[in-house]
Amino acid sequence: MNKKQHKHAKSKTHQHIATGTLDITRSGIGYVIVEGQEKDIFVRPQHFNQALNGDRVSVKINRHGRSGRMEGEIVQVLERKQSEFIGRIEINKNFAFFIPDKSKGTPDMYIPGDKINGAKNNDRVVVKITEWNKKNPEGEVMAILNASDENDLAMKEILVDAGFALAFDDDALEEAARIPDTISATEISKRKDFRDILTFTIDPEDAKDFDDAISLRKRKAGLYEIGVHIADVSHYMQPGGPLDENAYERATSVYLPDRVLPMLPEHISNELCSLRPKEDKLTFSAVFEVNAKGEIKSHWLGKTVIHSDHRFTYEEVQEIIEKKEGIFHDEILLLNELAQKFRKQRFKNGAINFSSEEVRFKLDSDGKPVGIIIKESKEAHQLIEEFMLLANKTVAEDVGKVKINKQPIPFPYRIHDTPGEEKLLPFADFAKKFGHKFDTKTPQGIAASFNKMLAEVQGKPEQHVLEQLGIRTMAKAIYATENIGHYGLGFEHYCHFTSPIRRYPDIMVHRILQQVLEGHLKADKKMEEKCRHSSERERAAMDAERAANKYKQVEFMQQYLGEEFEGVISGVAAFGFWVETVQHKCEGLVSIQSLLDYDDFRLIETEYCLAGRRSGRTFRMGDKVWIKVVAANLGKRQLDYEWIIQNGDINMPEQVPHRAKKSGSKHSKSKRK
User: Fold this and answer.
1) Is 597 part of any domain?
2) Which H helix or E strand runs over 99?
3) What is the average per-residue pLDDT within 26-36?
4) Residue 8 belongs to domain with CATH number
5) In whole angstroms, what is the distance from residue 202 CA to residue 313 CA?
6) For the chain, how are helix, strand and coil distributed in percent, rounded to 5?
């Protein structure tokens, strides 16, 4: 390469633009994380150019350091992670300043006098950025927080930090309020009428947003017509309108222990679109003709109107299944029999049978946790699950056949990739030590190996660790326009169609499906961007839900400081191991510092354990241990445990005391998971 060519290549490097997420450290330095790129791009604070922590940005790479580190300057904010912040307001005569609670590069904001909205000096408030001047953003007070209600403050802080607006825009609420509550005869005439066919919903006891219903009637000899009816949310929302924009920004409802932050205003989610019993409702339906063997003979997709005859809870349906008696018991038992046949066939076709249990908190009137409820997936849940999976799969299959200019129509598929070797191979080696062999040559072989292992470990000591580690080898399901199938479900085509009240991708699916049915196709060039946004918001919602659950765990365990419990090791790291209590399912950290009196422990990654250098004593994922609760920090949402030696504990030096150090030991402080 001559000097001129080298200069040109260097110039091109300097002008390279990358897209990623800005991560600002506590010291104020920024790094842009680019997906698929090994090294992050270093950005100095003076080059943030109004970008904030978590924003999706374009960054111009200006130079490469000798170490290979890239340095850049942010040239555009593509998408804000959050526009609302929690902090304290300082009020002057005609204006105010907002000081955010958390730094990470968030600047103070100027609040004009007419945007203070009743806040008083030093109030804790939620402020929304309205515009930027050259140096600082300008904002408006959206809510005044009650500093005495710690729980409410904590939950709102979790939602705001995750980038979710606490309230809908006035324009969106106004649009929702203008929607008529009645259904016109003209609209009904455009739809298939299912109002005279037996229809019911099955939902959790505390649910209010019923977005799916099932209808059933017998057809000709040996055939049944089963309708999966989904709330027709897209009928009520104008694309690009305030309501639609607010829903897209959230992209999902967020479910915290004591509240739901809905994707749509409650007038729509809990009233207008909710498939409540004894009310006519507009729906988008997948209707199947099925024989007694569970074979699908035909299907139809289209707009409908229904009238739910009954509202069931999962517990009521489970009781009917077990006792074989109760209202509509013949229909429930038939649907359950078909669902179990679908389920059996799905696993035969390669779906992976990971079991799950849901841990929920029993709260008092003040939102304080007073108990733990563990909910398992039973046949009543599986009944609904299998029919929703069938509808989702069928819609994706039908749309997948459609082309625009000989190209697939842009569509938000729900995809799930095969496990990566970097996680799968170490897990397969670990499982082999328990006698489980993995065929890692093909995706089908991997799935079959997982199912064989999951069946064989039932009731065995290693069940918990192998199930948990197995789940961790799996890729994350996301939304994407490139259809690679859904590995975990064993489907070549899959999408989300059945929950438009709480998921924005389902609304996109409804709109595209309607275009397909009408034959008026419009390719959405921004579909991949919308898929990425929906996946990111889904992850943010999951993080918020985990943070809120952790807060409730800490709040619940505060009453047990100094008490001892049996637990299961749920994770290991170089700085300690995590233990989940058997009784309460509350996870805390046993710091490696608190173990120094016993031995010098080191991490053996391939064994998922900490091992003592002198004693050989190990702490392995899945092991049962006894712990003492020594600290419960609500502000940091952290639980600290100390390991308790039990009589008969092997491989420990005789001089080691029977009990760990007292609560409050300096050893209880540690790094975090």
Assistant:
1) yes
2) strand 95-100
3) 88
4) 2.40.50.140
5) 5
6) 30, 30, 40
Q: What is the pLDDT of residue 375?
A: 83
Determine contact, residues 630/639, Cβ cutoff 8 Å: no
Q: Out of 62, 79, 96, pick the residue that ends a domain.
A: 79
Q: Based on the fold, state whether residues 142 and 255 are members of the same structural domain.
A: no
**576 pLDDT more than 80:** yes
What are 255-266's pLDDT values in tens digits? 999 999 999 999
Tell me the C-alpha distance between 358 and 356, whole Å: 7
Are residues 216 and 101 part of one domain?
A: no
Domain count, the chain: 4
pLDDT band at 656 (very low <50, low <70, confident <90, very high): very low
Residue 359's H or E segment, with its range, is strand 357-363
Indicate whether 266 and 188 sit together in one domain: yes
Average pLDDT, the chain: 90
Global pTM reads 0.88
Co-location of 238 and 301 in the same domain: yes
Distance from C-alpha of 311 to C-alpha of 371, rounded to nearest angstrom: 27
Whether 192 and 60 share a structural domain? no
Inside any domain, residue 482? no
CA dihedral defined by 362, 364, 370, 374, rounded to 10 degrees?
0
Closest CA to 589 of 552, 556, 550: 550
Contact between 569 and 647 under an 8 Å Cβ cutoff? The reply is no
Q: Name the β-bridge partners of 216.
A: 226
- Residue 24: give the domain boundaries: 3-79
Cα gap 624→618, rounded to integer Å? 12
Distance CA 414, CA 584 (A): 34
Q: Do residues 138 and 182 both lie within one domain?
A: no
Same domain, 580 and 603: yes
Q: What are phi and psi of 349, to 5 degrees?
A: -85, 0
For residue 122 the two structure tokens come to 């030093």
Find all residues with CB under 8 Å of 550, minimum gap 6, and list them.
587, 637
The stretch 116-132 carries a mean pLDDT of 91
d(CA 589, CA 586): 10
Which residues, including other chains, have CB under 8 Å from residue 598's CB and lie 6 or more apart? 612, 615, 617, 645, 652, 653, 656
pLDDT tens digits for 516-544? Answer: 999 999 999 999 999 999 999 999 999 99
Verify that 244 and 112 share a domain, yes or no.
Answer: no
Whether 198 is covered by a domain: the verdict is yes
